[in-house]
């Protein structure tokens, strides 16, 4: 806290502020320099006033809990990431197991129909995979602003997941795993209709998470739907989005849960003149909504898209640990999976048609070389 | 908007908030700075208050509250909204609540994912003119009135038209066919009851349209639910005397909203050139177009939010008919776009005329609208390969070209942008006197 900050700017009751001013202290630095107990005696403060003053002088957030990188690393290793069911997408996040990392915000953006909601549903089921099978073994909360969460689809994915789990547990001789209904009960769903409701929900979320420490994943689908161009005051929108993002990031860190936020794409008007960075050469004036303020809050950002309605791709375009990469995936009746490559082994990159299609590498320029290497490494 | 009086705050806190003009729960949540305990009101924040009509003096009074008091008020507001507005439950419960509206034909239903279209969501039907969009909507007007066991929603429909007259004569012939078809399954089916349960509203221009979406439609929907409750009450009261009397036309609650079409008013009123507003007058055509586009986006978002909220609140299905627009072929993909609606040749468009001119078309209103809807269906007329003419399917007396329905995106079914009949999310259909009928896949 800046020591030259005037004492009158502290958020205190009028009486207390008057007392302080009369006592001759003018800056926060002065107040911090003497022990508060002594000060309280001198000014005859009530215990409540003293506590308020103390809270103001030493806000809880400013008492630094510092950890060494080693401790943080140990901590992070203990937390299980949440798999997307597609090993290729999981590997975009790096790490031994891969998957959506806990304690951080991950953004998934894409045009309608690119698979955002499907990924959200898939993750909220996968978050419940027991720890014995390398999952997070938790439950999930799904905050839906769009009304695209379809429970029937969720039950489809859940039964597929349940079948996979029972197979694995039978093979290991363990007790039967989660059933479809259990998986569905493990998703708490809420529908939010307005920015105000969303603010309230995020505020309440802290309380819910305290009561249910088992929650390992919060999905917001989508954040941009509420904050689009119908919001008259752009400055206020920026502020709200930033505050909400910070709150979500805090929740993620405090409770060690993964926060996955879907984002829509918007058309940038006059993109040619502003010269903004392009995320996808395929359609260069389409960008994730909500701008840079929001972008900087997300730790990882992934864009989903498809090409000609045939092949789906996921592209990591912001990550603190990994290179910008593109991988292919598919969504079937049973959910996400890697592309099943019909070509001969050893012929993956050329024959699979995954990366070398007509003018595909031209479109992707540098990025495609990277992804080709990536695929090469993994499959040959 | 709810007054902060409901929050049960200490009176001193409440009075201070009232003086600062934070007099509703919504304002409290939107305008109170977060991270309450260590924020000093910045100059920027004061400006916001001024623009909201609050004097900065009023805001300064908030400083008399301790951080704990403000945080308490804020939490109370959040809790109030959570308790009154937000439904919170498990996905398992949600599964029991989900309901679906049949398209009125098993093949069509199968193509869109098995059970038809989902309620509580916006479904778009796009296609060229005369491809059968209105026909399909008329069919939905009828199926929505069927009991739930038959794929309907046992409700009524409101038809909001921007495109001239309601097709009464076509509806009349479809009702006749519909009654004849379902006479055995649904004993109490009656042409008059069906007519009674189709509401029609005409939206002549954009201003009327916004007004209707903002005020009239919610009231209309709410009224049909109220009268439903009244009816139920009366029926219970008079159950003993007048059981046979209930044959009189009965109003059902609205379960379906059809907008035919969402495009028309937006298209016809999009000003290119001088926008007519005083401020943009001098800045030339580009500025006028730009502001007009921004305004249009805002209107589209607003309508989308309203429809979504309404659909969720009452469990309605919403159908929006959309027109298509030509995709201007860009010579090079790397050129800056002529306007903001840049065609995206590889990813999103589809050929409507496969064998013919190869013209690209896409649904109108751009990405803003695309982000607003939950799912998109495309109807198209295709010229089929010659082999089709000779096989058994084409022997029907109808000489009109076969048509196809495909799912472009939808959260509950796989999509098919490729016109490949072997994949799901796709089917052929024809239009006959009964309505829209699916053609089974020859394979």
TrEMBL record, chain A:
Localization per record: Nucleus
Gene3D superfamilies: P-loop containing nucleotide triphosphate hydrolases
Domain RecA family profile: 78-265
Chief location bin: nucleus
GO MF entry, a single one: ATP-dependent DNA damage sensor activity
Name of the protein described by the UniProt record: DNA repair protein RAD51 homolog 3
GO BP, one annotated term: reciprocal meiotic recombination
Biological source species: Linnemannia gamsii
Keywords tagged on the record: ATP-binding, DNA damage, DNA repair, Nucleotide-binding, Nucleus
Gene Ontology CC annotations of this record: Rad51B-Rad51C-Rad51D-XRCC2 complex; Rad51C-XRCC3 complex; replication fork
InterPro entries: AAA+_ATPase (IPR003593), DNA_recomb/repair_RecA-like (IPR016467), HR_Repair_Mediator (IPR052093), P-loop_NTPase (IPR027417), Rad51_C (IPR013632), RecA_ATP-bd (IPR020588)
Automatic annotation (TrEMBL), chain B:
GO cellular component, one term: replication fork
Source organism (scientific name): Linnemannia gamsii
Chief localization: nucleus
Name assigned to this protein: DNA repair protein xrcc3
Domain RecA family profile, residue spans: 97-324
SUPFAM superfamilies: P-loop containing nucleoside triphosphate hydrolases
Tagged with keyword Iron: no
Gene Ontology molecular-function annotations: ATP binding; ATP-dependent DNA damage sensor activity; four-way junction DNA binding
Comp. bias intervals (Basic and acidic residues): 235-246
Keyword DNA damage in record: yes
Subcellular location: Nucleus
Disordered, as annotated region: 229-250
InterPro entries: P-loop_NTPase (IPR027417), Rad51_C (IPR013632), RecA_ATP-bd (IPR020588), XRCC3-like_C (IPR047348)
Keyword annotations from UniProtKB, A to Z: ATP-binding, DNA damage, DNA repair, Nucleotide-binding, Nucleus
GO biological process, one term: t-circle formation
CDD domains: XRCC3
